[in-house]
Amino acid sequence: MRRMLKLWESDGMRLQRTAALLVVVGFLAATGSPGLAHASAASERQRSFTAAAAEFGVPQELLLSISYNQSRWEDHNGLPSADGGYGLMHLTTNTELIDGRGDHRRPRLVRQLHNRAYTLDDAARLLAVSPETVKKGQRHNVRGGAALVAHYAKESNNGQSPSDLGGWYSAVARLNNAQDDEAAQAFADDVYDTIQTGVSRTTTDGQRVALASRLVKPDRSKLQNLRLPKRARHQDQTECPRDLSCKFVPARFAQNNPTDPLDYGNLDRANRPRDIKIKYIMIHDTEGSYQSSIDWFRDPASFVSAHYIIRSSDGEVTQMVKNKDIGWHARNWYINMHSIGVEHEGFSAEGATWYTEAMYRSSAKLVRYLADKYDIPLDRDHIIGHDQNYPPASNRVATMHTDPGPFWDWERYMELLGAPVKQTAGPSAKVVAIAPKFVTNKPPITQCIEEVCTPLPSQSANVVYVRTQPSHNSPLVTNIALHPDGSPGTNRIEDWSATAVHGQRFAVAGRQGDWTAIWYGGQKGWIHNPSGHARTALPVAGKVVTPKEGLGSVPLYGRPLPEASAYTHNVPVQPVVPLQYQIPAGQTYPVQEKKIVNDYLHVLTFDRSSPGDGTLVVGSEKYIPISYNHRQGYVKASDVQLASD
Description:
- By secondary structure, the chain is α+β, with helices and mostly antiparallel strands.
- The protein has four domains: 9-226, Lysozyme, CATH 1.10.530; 234-406, Peptidoglycan recognition protein-like (Lysozyme-like), CATH 3.40.80.10; 444-540, no CATH class; 553-643, no CATH class.
- The strands form eleven sheets. It has a six-stranded mixed β-sheet with strand order 5-11-10-13-9-14, sandwiched between helices.
- Strand 1 and strand 2 (91-92) form a beta hairpin.
- It is globular and about 80 Å long.
- Residues 1-40 have low confidence and may be disordered.
């Protein structure tokens, strides 16, 4: 059976372990006993599946497998996935628009998802409770999923529940809310494959949940009753290494409103690298499941897409945007123009739960291939996280994404790329690269939901905190965009005010004992950096910039735009507007790349009907990309002077 031996490497699950578990808990598949491995002291979460299965007459192993494939039995602290899925069962509702394109010339459109059913809203109606109850109540979320599966099964089975486990197949396929037949079948196959193999794990909040393996033959005969459109079959159009499991499923490129060519998604056609150089590979996490993310990018009203998505369990790759085209993934049009986006199945706050060795290896193999093909340097200035780029305008800085988050193992990843962060200069170097040992670096990180903050479980992380003084008791440095009142940064997972990430480089501002001062976001900050295995930064060679003599400070920009005189062919001038950040005189910041040519591809409409659509504007004003704080920005070359390390 397809993907029969699909395993979750991060959980260390093995078939032998499953067999041993069956003996311990007395699971008797041969006698028709339920497929749940029922421990004598079942967790509260395990019991919620048992109760919902009994209440709605749904096989409990089916509910467990659906939830595992959607959420890994994690509640995500009540936060939605990228496509609006909530809770253990990933029940969906409408979400706030996130425009991945990132061009402030493009109007902010209100997303209208026509003919899209929301499973959370339907579940709430079936339970006769409010949608908020289904969002935030774990028990009701599972009950809602069970009610929906039961409802869908009866609708396709003449009002009766299926007589065996295999007969629930079409109901599971419908639950995924897929946009085409292949996506629906892929999700249902994953659910049944997990039942075949079995799985068990302890969630991040300490809940032990287990699903024992059970032989089952899924009945796909009623799948056609869902009347889903057939997905167009594509020959092998993937741009992947030959030894990588990779398929091509195109993101939707379509006009949403037939009378408004401005309303379209989810990508833009181009001819890269012939017309635009590809300079960056951006690492994301999906904040949702693999299949739901594929479905999301196939909805033209989602206004988001990436070139690749990688599955957690086995590293399977789905390419969704051709590399010649521009995906909408960075929320910064310049970065989108010049980058390839690679999504990884998972949630940033639960990184270690999702970021498996299979995923790391598959991703590294893909990125090495892309870097070689497009001549992209394998360093942390060009292999970047979504959390490292700014938006085009200052009013969006505070809402920029922070994936792949603090639990992405950049140390391991760069080693797999063959480009580990290492010392390249003497101990008195003027530049350091952040390089804590991932295994032992476990800073306190909290997650706050509606102002209720809970420490996340202690685990390895890629960040070090930047403080105002060389002391663990001193406050964290601030960030004007996140803390306009000047209050210190915090250790909240979404607060990047005072975090420096593995591989980022900073200019040294001083040293005192086990502490190193760095210029960070317009201020002097201190990182604890003892010698030996506890070190958090390494001396490296590099060039730095500082404001030209006579200038009190110079502005930072979110993207390098052409000057007004460069615009022709009726292309509206893009105003060059700085962010809210400054580089004061006397401070230095590492150069990521030599002077770069700024450019802007003007595209507003789906059919290129707007004046100047499709024109690439190239300016003569030169910019220099620098590492500023947690993120990278741009300074005008005319504002700064360059000095060697």
